[in-house]
Amino acid sequence: MSSPLVPAAAALRARTAVYAAFVLNGAFMSAWVSRIPSVRDTLGLSNSGMSVLLLALSAGSVIAMPLAGAVVLRIGPARTVFLGSVAVATGLAVVAVSVDGLGLVAPAALGLFVAGAGTASWDVAMNVEGSGVERRLDRSIMSRFHAAWSLGTVLSAGLAVLLLRLGVPTWTHLAGFAVLVVTGTAVATRSFLVGAAPAAGEERPAGSITLGQAWREPRTLVIGVLVLCMAFVEGTANDWLALGIVDGHDATHSVGVAGFTVFVIAMTTGRLSGPWLLETFGRVRALRISAAVAAVGIGVFVLSPNVGVAMAGALLWGLGTALGFPTGMSAAGDQEVNAAVRVSVVSSVGYTAFLAGPPLLGLLADHVGVMTAVTAAAVAAVVGLFVASSAAPHSDGVALGSARRGAAGKLSS
Fold first, then answer.
1. Per the UniProt record, which residue ranges are transmembrane (predicted)?
2. Whether 237 contacts 318, CB under 8 Å
């Protein structure tokens, strides 16, 4: 069943609010990452010790993400995003006090666990809300929401560089972000779409499924595999592209970072142009083209005879990576009544690649080298190409950009 149109002003306000939620989520992650070296040094941890501490953040996310869909169904995306931001802020505050005030690892780990659970719930809820906004505007704009997340990471990283140069302590930086994320989400979620959460005691809508049933749906699970594959392609670049250039071409660290920058710019550009690509070629064809471009880009990167060709490979790699993850989220949210549970399942499957991918590739790289190890990402892209058909519009849904082009297209202009 298609979603009813909402007034233009409300739909556009909701779109802006979702952009804000994605920016803030990305900004939090970048703020934390920018302080990892400071936290390690202040606590006197080795690199392996810091890795164990970072597992607390991942553990919180892994536990919370499969349950987030049920939470969204119970209280709606707006409250879930806000409460997730409160958990993130609380976790950041605990980390700030633990590191600079107490110098203790255990409470810092607890804070990271809480922040991880909060950001996972926030992530699922904002993707559910984003899929709802897509349906109201009849535009495939999920990729632009994810581009906003990247923008948030870049802006936050730039701010972190400035704060570090000014000698601002870790606790001030993290505590400031705690206030920012709560205040920002409190304002943004006021403009989320109305009516997403059921009233108390209300019976489940016709056609709705439980979280357990969503985990048994073949289409949902295959979309999860698609997202997992493309998340692995993206995560491999995040963790190993720069090292691949350094090790494979005996380049300086700055050249390796420049290669990663090419990838990020290309991926962000691809996400900004995502609506045009999806509406021109359709969801499945656009995904297949993207996966093929990513596989070719990785191949060029691995076989490159020099740094210049490797940069070209990184560019294709970034362009091909752009649409997989956000479009998988759109596909999971096709049917509004079940968007929350399906996005939760797909997110849980997909994020496994971000958590398990880096260590697995690291083990492989120890035996065959980084440049050869990243070919695993090309294999994942090819698998993504073959399972892209799972993202075809749900039989009960409406393909975005078709049925309501005349009315809803005006809303997004």
1. 12-32, 52-73, 80-99, 105-126, 147-168, 174-200, 221-243, 255-274, 286-303, 309-327, 339-361, 367-388
2. yes
Q: CA–CA separation, 18 vs 16, rounded Å?
A: 5
**Residue 299 Cα distances to 243, 295, 296, 374, angstroms:** 16, 6, 5, 9
Q: What is the C-alpha end-to-end distance of the chain, expressed in Å?
A: 25
CA 257 to chain centre: 21
Phi and psi of 403, rounded to 5°? Answer: -70, -30
CATH number of 8-191: 1.20.1250.20
Give me 58's structure tokens.
């991942």
Residue 266 tokens read as 């290309």
Amino acid in position 195: G
How many CA atoms does the CB half-sphere of 183 hold within 13 Å?
6
**CA 298 to the chain's CA centroid:** 21
Contact 329, 347 (CB under 8 A): yes
The domain made up of 211-411 has a fold known as: Growth Hormone; Chain: A; (1.20.1250)
- Per-residue model confidence as pLDDT tens digits over 82-134: 999 999 999 989 988 888 778 888 898 999 999 999 998 999 899 889 988 88
In whole angstroms, what is the distance from residue 48 CA to residue 378 CA?
A: 29
Which residues, 6 or more positions from 15, have their beta carbon under 8 angstroms from its beta carbon? 133, 137, 141, 412
Q: How many C-alpha atoms does 354 have within 13 Å on its Cβ side?
A: 17
Q: pLDDT tens for residues 41-68?
A: 888 877 667 767 778 888 888 888 888 8
CB-count exposure of residue 62 (10 Å: 0-12, 13-18, 19+): middle
Q: What is the DSSP string of 365-400?
A: HHHH-HHHHTHHHHHHHHHHHHHGGGGSPPTTS--T
Domain ranges in the chain with CATH number 1.20.1250.20: 8-191, 211-411
Report d(CA 65, CA 272) in Å as an integer: 26
**Residue 405: which residues within 8 A CB-CB, separation 6 or more?**
138
